[in-house]
Amino acid sequence: MTSTTDFANDIRLNGAVLLAQLQQLGNIGCDTDSGGRTRIALTDDEKAGRDQLVAWMRELDLDIGIDQIGNIFGTLLPATPEEKSLAPLMIGSHIDTVKNAGALDGCYGVLSGLAVVRAFREANKQPNRPITIAAFTNEEGVRYQPDMMGSLVCAGGLSIDTALQTIGTDGTRLGDELKRIGYAGDIAPTSVVPYEYLELHIEQGPILEAEAKQIGVVENLQGISWQKITIQGNANHAGTTPMRLRNDAGWAAASVMTFLRELAASSTNTLATVGSLKLAPDLINVIARSATFTVDLRDPDEQQLRSAERRLQAYLAVLEQQEGVKIVSKQLARFEPVIFNTRLVDEIETSAQRLGFSYRRMTSGAGHDAQMIARIAPAGMIFVPSRDGISHNPREHTDDEQLLNGAQVLLDVVLQRLEM
Amino acid sequence: MTSTTDFANDIRLNGAVLLAQLQQLGNIGCDTDSGGRTRIALTDDEKAGRDQLVAWMRELDLDIGIDQIGNIFGTLLPATPEEKSLAPLMIGSHIDTVKNAGALDGCYGVLSGLAVVRAFREANKQPNRPITIAAFTNEEGVRYQPDMMGSLVCAGGLSIDTALQTIGTDGTRLGDELKRIGYAGDIAPTSVVPYEYLELHIEQGPILEAEAKQIGVVENLQGISWQKITIQGNANHAGTTPMRLRNDAGWAAASVMTFLRELAASSTNTLATVGSLKLAPDLINVIARSATFTVDLRDPDEQQLRSAERRLQAYLAVLEQQEGVKIVSKQLARFEPVIFNTRLVDEIETSAQRLGFSYRRMTSGAGHDAQMIARIAPAGMIFVPSRDGISHNPREHTDDEQLLNGAQVLLDVVLQRLEM
Fold this sequence. Notes:
Chains A, B: Zn(2+) 1 binds at residues 94, 105, 201. Chains A, B: GO terms for molecular function: hydrolase activity, acting on carbon-nitrogen (but not peptide) bonds, in linear amidines; metal ion binding. Chains A, B: It comes from Advenella mimigardefordensis (strain DSM 17166 / LMG 22922 / DPN7). Chains A, B: Keywords: Hydrolase, Metal-binding, Zinc. Two copies of one chain form a homodimer. Chain A is 37% helix and 20% strand. By secondary structure, chain A is an alpha/beta fold. Chain A has two domains: 4-222 and 337-418, Aminopeptidase; 223-335, 2-Layer Sandwich (Alpha-Beta Plaits). In chain A, strands 1, 2, 3, 4, 5, 6, 12, 13 and 14 form a nine-stranded mixed sheet that branches. In chain A, strands 7, 8, 9, 10 and 11 form a five-stranded antiparallel sheet that branches.
């Protein structure tokens, strides 16, 4: 421990550079009116973000590799051939965003990884095994589904061929867009197997702020079920069709939303959200012929999540009869809850204690790349507070001091794991 | 009466031409896949429909005039200067359509008007006062609101200047589009005041078919209230925001739809429809920041309609508090119920009897140009059945025989009103 501490004293976080890079990356794809940035996976703006990240990796003289799904890896190599041959300690997250997003979601984890290797560079030290900084492709899943695709492919949960064939909401093929922006690499995604994986992220929820805790020690992550539901009714004249004779797809969709709200309210941890909804023909004086909407169900308990899915399906069956509509539901994504590696969770807690930060163990409400990598390597996550719990929004904010606290814990955990 | 009948015997409806023209006009803007046609007001396709109508008016050697809002008038003139100076008996409707519409809504009334004057031409007879066939601009109100705009301007309910300044859902200015398609005329809309006004239309509802009646004698028309409601909430992460801490604009919109459904179900004649709804940012894993939707309320009783509007406003006020959202509602259109001219209603009923058709007196569920012209002249409407009550849909259908029945009644009423 003493030597470790001595050594750790030489390897220091450069907070100024980390904060500056967060701002610079946040300016790419930024809309000056809303203050939000939009770097949806494999668009021109996201390519610009990738180019900036790669440039920063070059400045740190990292070994840069791109895999076939476009995941970017920047590796700080150790000195000896034996050490070089070891599996890397990986620090990762993503730099793609939702529409009109904040600057921290994902980017904070990737750039804090760069800050860790920068600390080694500035101390002129080398680690005793490779440290790889990873930026995974399409974590948000806005344009191409499922989300967390890059890390999912790495973990072998989705074949690279299937992933490249994915058709986006805009009709584009993922493989084509990846080539177009110049990030279709050669590395086989499944060949990248880390020794251990760490991800630092903003909470994107209100819990740490509400309890005035500086660090979230993430124990587990709730399961996610995404469905797309299409309701087919009849487009009739809004003025001449008696209510009892209607097959109103819009009304049917609204009643599903009401059902989901009550389902969530009546359960302990289940969350239910309808974030996207479209009506056709979408005219003021025509009853909706069809309604297409998404359902996002989450629960840290797999049994509870399954029960929510079952209850929804049962309700849709009743609604079909009751409203004389046809309902088709399609699973877009499904991930079971994840339990993170206890050794890493304990290590993160110990670091938070050693550095004197207030902390709490907690569940991750959002999906993260860490849940995918957890399938192939020990994984752990560190959270910092989000003001008002807001994310996926220009008002997403974490104080600089809190951002640096999280990066300090990440660096400390890395040093401990490398037993340096 | 005898002379009338004798005379009427010479003036006969040419059913073949009427049915052929309905089909020809229906082919303009038609989508061969869906079988529906789209001639939204002042688009290129609607201009093509206008050009065809004007060509047919020319074939009948009618006096053609276009007013400043683009209403098309084709007049069959009487013989003497005295008769020519009389106010015209007007037969009108519209030829613009909703998206993916049927071939009869509106067009049936206009082309039946042409059939009436054709009957005079083919019998080589002249009426004792002008007969004007009118096609009113933008009855559907899909692109520019309010709907029934052309007849509303004629009736002095909307100034021509305001109407021409209307900005469409696609950002275009009505006056510019009217010029672009070449239908910005010189006639002052309010200078056109009919002696009497008749409109023949498909029911667009299921009542006549359900009761196996051939003719609908329209006594009145229900009032219409159109509103656009915008709900402002907060865009938070779908996975990390506890249900109790959400300000979900999408959920709030769904609860308004539920409220309206219950309001309509609990009243005798009120109809409530939400036909258009859009969420933002409209993403699967983001709680909706805003929801913008339309409300279409109808009732034949003005007091009932007002009460529905009041109850909706009261509910929105409660919802604002309960869900922590901001709600703004804007009146897009508001028309009181209309009572049609009793003399004309009786005349239509008498004609239906004389021609041996089964009929019923009824309320019009849809809005029609007749309700606007009723403000400045005695007006009446004739309905024919709609199969399955379907309209604003490619499956809109009325049997040829039923279409000709309606035209027969129209022609007979015209001959009676002209006391020929």
